[in-house]
Every structure is written in structure tokens, then in C-alpha cells.
Amino acid sequence: MFNGAGQAIVLGKKLGTGGEGSVYEMVGVNHLVAKVYHEAPDQQKQAKLRLMSRSRSEQLLKYTAWPQDTLHSTKMGSVTGFVMAKVEGMTPVQTLYSPAHRKSEYPDRAWDFLLFAARNTASAFTALHEHGHVLGDVNHGNAYVGSKATIVLIDTDSYQIHDGNRLHLCEVGVSHYTPPELQGISFKGVTRTANHDNFGLALLIFHLLFGGRHPFAGVPQRDGIGESLEDNIKQLRFAYSRSASQRLLTSPPNSLPLSLVPPRLENMFEAAFTEEGRAGRRPTAKQWLDELDEMRKAMRVCGKTKMHVFSNHLRDCPWCALENKGVVYFINATVYATGPTGTPVNIGQVWAAICNVEAPVELPLPQISQIKVTATPPPTGFVPDSARWVMSIGLIAAVIFAMNAIPAITLWLMVAGAGGLVGIWNIGSAAKRMELSRRSSARQTAQQHYKHAVEALNREAGVKAFSDKHDELGRLKSEFDQLPASEQRELASLQGNAEKRQKQKHLDKYFIDKANLPGIGPAKRAALQSFGIETAGDVEWNRVRRIKGFGDVLTRTLVDWRKSHERNFRFNPSQAVTPADINAVKQAIQARKQQIDQQMRAGLQELRQFATKQQQAIHRHQPTIQAAAKRLAQAEADCAAL
């Protein structure tokens, strides 16, 4: 073949074949490859390839497999292919964000690596958009990732290219990466925009950060909802949205919440996948790039394992929470360490030091009854009970005197006296009830304020906080003491579950995304992955059948596929318990010992610093508590004054 300058190009070994053409090595040129079309492209496609080869730039070549030269069957003849960079040592991005693939392809990579890959994906889109081009056919097969999280976008000859005068359209696309405003329509003659690309970009970033889940795959909240990913996208049923229940689709079981990322990124996903994005206001690739760069500066590592990396806006480790439910996203890298034992751990000294830390004193709180305040006088016109008693006693004495002086009218005097007493006690009674209600309400409010102020101090520096931490460390010590017995039990169980373990490893080698499964296309495979079903080992009738869109027929297809691989399984007794199996158990126990040691040493420091922190907390909270106590004392005195 010949390049655009008429120089001869000798093709080497065929590297792969696709729907449009085949890719070959180029003899004598190791860093480039040749894509040759099965059939000569039309004139418009040829013009597009010539334009692309002329307009290449350093940034485009860094992030994409951009055409660097045209290929011709004859000198200066029709364009029948092009030259591009050889994408070596890279895999489709799905092998990184898929938990099942990652365990075999990137077992020692944690979430910060996926975050870096997401950042680099945004950077690649930024470079493309800044040149005025649009990828158009965004999908996981068009992005490749390297061992250092570098990203290269491929299939560039399908991109929408603008040369300032003429627009070369992208007229292909993958349905479950297509934005809602383009769902269900033909791409023929459609001008794609950067905002359309930004939907696919947000989806790729979501895949990378949220365990390969599709943002529009979830659990329907009403019949007739969620039959397909395409319909969910069109109807903006973002399953992880803050308004997911109103959108009638919620996230699958054991999925990561949107709060895994900081609020600013949460808002960006909301904008990308809901009404705001459809209206043309999706976050741009540059905005994603900037925000992901900011997030990378604010990461922390879990105390249990260095494989648990997460944003420091979270209080607790999200990966530990999932592992407590039996969901493992990241393999503990300690298992791959050399040697079965590691550094010995002496927990006895740490526990002895913990037991020697003195417990803090009870928090000093003000005595409400001893706070001196002056009661607020009753309002003008208010008749106190003491005055009523004086008037009542005077009236009774007068009636008794009159009864002795004029016995004949005793009955009338008694009736008049009773009426007089009723009148005395009714004087200003309505005003008294109102004032008493007002002062009682003020006392109740003061009691609540005082209670909350004391609770805030107790949460931070109360004796219970100290005892809770001490009890937690005691439970860790008990677990540590039981680890040798746990190790023996696990080693003994290796023989008993050897066949089950071998079968699971066998089934986990067969990925759904690579299988020939009639009726189960890319969108349905993405839905399966969103529910944690990626390999034959994950397929179970009830797990699959619960997913919307999978009836008995498709479920049977998957179960039969699993069974076909089960039939090929042969248990190898000689490999029932391998040295690697034994080593994995010992290393896991040793890793747990070291984790407990780290947690107990950190806890010891917390207990030692508790007295200082308690005094600081008292100093910080004391003004609020004193003010609340005085307010309560005043309210109590005001109520007693009526």
C-alpha cells in the first residue's frame, strides 16, 4: 500500500478484524499500525480521513488513535485506510471498572486509580472538544486504559469532525450510551453536540466511580416501569438521583450511593442525567476534569487496608460497609505479599497500656436550683393567689360573724358567701391562665435548649464516649485472641469446600460480556452488571429473574449457559488444597492481626488524649450550657412566681 505522500507501506501481521476493516502491523514501524477497510469508503469518508490526517495535533495524538496518514491501494489513489498509533499494553476501560474483570486485570488497583482514570477520560474529551470535534459514538469499547490510568480513545474515523466550513457527521451510536434527547431516532443527518458527548462522558465516569453500575439500571417502583435501559434514559429515570423515588426507579441492592462523591460532583451527575442536561446544560468535559482534579487532592485511606481509598468528605469507609454485607469491590493487596506470616504483632503491650489509661471524671454541670435569678413580676392587673386567699379568709370570717349576729338569715348568708368565694377566685382567672401558659411554654423551651446543650457536650466528651471506645478496643482484643483458632478452622475447612471453591474459580473465568447469549444484547448485559452479575459464577435463577426485563426465557438462557460451563468442570483432588490456598488463609489472618494492631494503637492514642479533649470541649461548650442553664432557672422561677 501507499501513504498520502505516495511512499510504499508494507503490511505485516493482521492484529484484528472488525465490521469495517482489519488492523495490521507495519513492517519496520513498531509504534504505528494500519487500518484497512474491507470496502473502499465513499468520497465523503475519504475527504474526512484526509482532513483528519492533516489536522492532527499533539493533544489529539496524546489522547486518541488519530489518523496520522492516509493509506491507498495505488499511488495517489482512493483512500482505503489510514495509519494510527499502536495501542499497546492497554485494555478496554470495562476491564477496569467491572469488579469481576478488575480482580484479574488490575487486582492491586484501588479506587484512587479508577478516579485517576476518570479524570484522564475527562481530559481526553476536553482535548477533543477544544478542537471543535465530537466523539458521537461514546461507549465503553471506544476507551482504552493503561497500567498508569492513561486513557486513549479509539475508532476516531467515526467521530464528527468540523473543519470550519464542512461538518463530517457521526451517524452511529450505542443505545445505552445515547442521551435522552436522541433516544429512538436515527442518527442519519443528525448533528451531534458536545452536550450529547457529555452524557456519554458522565456515564463513563459513573461506571468508573460506582463499580461499573449503569446509572439508569435499577429497581422499578411501579409496574410498567424500567423495561429497558433505553426507556429509562429517555424518561430520565436516574436510579441514583436524590429524587429517584419520584422517578420511579431506585438503585439496585448493594450499590454505592451517590454520596460516595462530594456534593459538587453529586450535583454534576444530577445535572448530566436529568432535565437540566436534556436542556443543554450538562457539565462540560473541562468542568469534570477540574472537579475530579480537586477530588483527587482530598482522599484518605482506611485503617483496615490500603486498598480502601475514599473521599475525605465521608466519615466512614464505604468499602468496609459493603464488605460487611458480603460485597467485595477491592481485593486486599496484603494477600499478594511475599511470605505467609509478615511482621509479628504483640497486642499484649498495647492492651496493657489501654487498661492503664484513667477514666475521665464526670462532666461538671450547673445546678439549676442554685442559680440565683429574680423572678419576673406578674403583669399589671394580675391578682396573685396570696391576695385571693386573704380575700377569701376575710369573706369567710365576715359570713361567720354575720351568722352569729343574725341567725335567722344563716342560709342566705351561706349562699352569698359561696357566691362571693366563686367571684374572688374568678377575678382575673383568664389572664392568669394565659400568663401561666406562656411561662410554661418558655420553661419547656428552656428545658429543651439545656438538654440539647448538655447532649452536645456528652457526645463529644462525656464519660460514655470514653467507655464506648474502651469497649470497642476490648472487642478487638477478644477478636485478636481468637484469630489463631479462626485460622485453624479456616485451614481445616479448605479440604471440605475445595470442590466448591474450584468450581467457583472455574465459573468466574467466563464473562457475560464476552459470551454468545441470544436475546441478551449490550443494554441487557449492562443491566446485569449493574446488579452485580458479570460471570457464570454470579448467575442464579432468582438473582436474574428479579431484574426488570429478564423473564423466564432470558433467565433460562443465562442459567443454561452457566450449566454448560458447570458440565465442563472437573474437580482436581491433587489441587484440593494448594500452598497458595494455605498461604492466602495465613496472610488474611496476619493482615487482620495487623489491622487490629493499628486500630488498637490509634484507639490508645484517642483514650490518652481524651482528658485534654474533654477539657477543650468543656471550655468550648461551657458558655452555651451556662446560658441555657440560666435561661432554664429564670423560666422555673417565673413559673413559681404565679
> What share of residues are in beta strands?
5-15%
Overall shape: it is elongated
Q: Could you please say which CATH topology of one domain applies here?
A: Transferase(Phosphotransferase), domain 1
In terms of per-residue confidence, which ranges show pLDDT below 50 for 5 or more consecutive residues? 333-341
CATH architecture title of one domain:
Orthogonal Bundle
* CATH H-level homologous superfamily name of one domain: Transferase(Phosphotransferase) domain 1
CATH class of one domain: Mainly Alpha
Mean pLDDT: 90
In terms of structural class, how would the helical and strand content be classed?
alpha+beta
Gyration radius over CA? 38 Å
Strand order of the largest sheet: 1-5-6-4-3-2
Number of alpha- plus pi-helical segments = 22
Number of strands: 15
In helices, the fraction of residues equals 40-55%
The biggest beta sheet is recorded as: 6 strands, antiparallel
Terminal residue distance: 107 Å
Features:
alpha+beta; Phosphorylase Kinase, domain 1; 50% helix; Transferase(Phosphotransferase), domain 1; 9% strand; 642 residues; elongated; 6-stranded antiparallel β-sheet
Mind explaining what this structure looks like?
The protein is α+β, with helices and mostly antiparallel strands. It contains 22 helices and 15 strands. The protein has a six-stranded antiparallel sheet, with helices on one face. Helix 5 (111-130) runs antiparallel to helix 6 and helix 5 packs antiparallel against helix 10. Residues 333-341 have low confidence and may be disordered.
